[in-house]
Amino acid sequence: xxxxxxxxxxxxxxxxxxxxxxxxxxxxxxxxxxxxxxxxxxxxxxxxxxxxxxxxxxxxxxxxxxxxxxxxxxxxxxxxxxxxxxxxxxxxxxxxxxxxxxxxxxxxxxxxxxxxxxxxxxxxxxxxxxxx
Length: 132
Fold this sequence. Notes:
132 residues; mainly beta; Deoxyribonuclease I, Chain A; elongated
């Protein structure tokens, strides 16, 4: 499932469960070094999509404890994975101030809720008065 928001008609934010693991190794300023796990085939497909569309995987750019990284816990708590991502345009990478998960959030799901903090600045539109 994908959820996309458009801000100022130039920034795209894509959030959702991609069922892919991008891993903890950096890749061309698309994936940071603070991911979780080893990259799989679906993770490589997500990275290729990000490369074609100019997006980055924001979850992997912030150093956090592992409890704030994983987004899905297998039944029986025998493994934890990072499957849900927040993607933004590369141009707006500096607008993302923090990304983490909220384990234990009451959302009726086996996934942890990923949360991002953004800081956007809007241009001031100066309108000239018409002279009569």
